[in-house]
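#lab-general

N.A. 3:47 PM
ok so I finally got the sequence cleaned up, no stray characters, all 82 residues accounted for. can someone with queue access submit it? mine expired

B.Y. 3:52 PM
send it over

N.A. 3:53 PM
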Amino acid sequence: MVDKKELRRQLIEKRNGISQDIRKEKSRKITEKLLKNPALKKADTVFVYVSFGSEVDTHILIHELLRLGKRVGVPLCNTQDH
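B.Y. 4:20 PM
back already:
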């Protein structure tokens, strides 16, 4: 049985193996789908993580939400205290 730490490592490795072009296209499709979501359309505030590395790119989504007049919340990490 694979423990959580090992499973996370395997999945990140698999995600890192996705080409940049495919990741960009998938990120675009995810953003389009999210922007069509009725709950998101009527929300005043949306909480979004800020993508890093090989994660789904959320930067376009964040910019589009701001353009639509939404208030966007993102996590703040204190790297000194972890």
